[in-house]
Task: inverse folding
């Protein structure tokens, strides 16, 4: 089992850093799945137990100048590692001005992802800062838990309003309640609502647009365009998602499975991030 990669382009390094920083804000631990073509950051929470889940996909060729992997076997050319994304985030902070960054799988006192940043130096002697990030290698028999989640059979899909505006709204609502209702319809309308014994607050968004999903478009015509699908969620989980965003997506969408799941999707030209927040009673 071998993995080594190298980044030279500063823009790619900064973009990769923003992605990792976003992942680090969402959870303390996650799984890094490495394949010949892609990297995946995966959080496989059990929605039935109230846990969030996440799937972030990166096309390696858009980030790395060199990338080599030898998986556990020829017929399973991939590696799954459990780690703390915050550790990678901290290591990358020291590498922002690096001439190059190498990341490889090593064996120290335990399995590690070793990140070596070649930093600028005033002398002819190179200055390399190395970080050993502990990881747990996940055995192949457990890989089925870290496959791409299937698209839920949603009732409404809608484009999100600007994430900064949405974050400001949710930050204010969090002071009033622990729970928030997200509702939307097929006419491009979305509402964020909190209701307690003392207060009821609703923020309305209009003209957001509804993504075309191929075959689902014909199904949507048979639905009431004004009917709202809604799901009540833990407001802290939504706030956590919005607070950590550094991906700068070109598209941001929300799929709602009525009273069950809120499925958030961020799309960038070389990154996609899916986040699932289960309903609370």
Result:
């Amino acid at each position: 089992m071998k993995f080594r990669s190298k980044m030279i382009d500063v823009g790619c390094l900064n973009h990769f850093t923003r992605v990792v920083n976003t992942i680090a804000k969402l959870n303390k631990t996650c799984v890094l799945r490495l394949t010949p073509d892609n990297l995946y950051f995966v959080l496989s929470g059990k929605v039935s137990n109230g846990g969030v889940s996440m799937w972030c996909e990166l096309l390696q060729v858009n980030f790395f100048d060199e990338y080599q992997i030898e998986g556990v076997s020829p017929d399973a050319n991939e590696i799954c590692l459990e780690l703390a994304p915050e550790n990678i985030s901290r290591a990358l902070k020291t590498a922002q001005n690096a001439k190059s960054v190498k990341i490889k799988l090593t064996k120290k006192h335990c399995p590690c992802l070793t990140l070596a940043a070649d930093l600028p130096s005033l002398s002819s002697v190179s200055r390399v800062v190395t970080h050993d990030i502990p990881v747990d290698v996940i055995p192949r028999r457990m890989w089925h838990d870290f496959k791409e989640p299937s698209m839920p059979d949603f009732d409404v899909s809608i484009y999100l309003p600007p994430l900064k505006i949405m974050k400001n709204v949710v930050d204010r609502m969090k002071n009033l309640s622990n729970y928030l209702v997200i509702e939307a319809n097929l006419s491009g309308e979305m509402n964020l609502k909190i209701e307690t014994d003392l207060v009821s607050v609703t923020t309305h968004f209009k003209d957001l647009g509804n993504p075309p999903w191929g075959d689902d478009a014909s199904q949507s015509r048979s639905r009431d365009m004004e009917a709202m699908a809604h799901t009540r969620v833990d407001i802290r989980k939504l706030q956590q998602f919005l607070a950590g965003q550094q991906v700068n997506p070109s598209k941001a969408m929300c799929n709602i499975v009525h009273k069950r799941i809120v499925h958030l999707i961020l799309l960038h030209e070389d990154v996609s991030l899916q986040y699932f927040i289960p309903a609370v009673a």
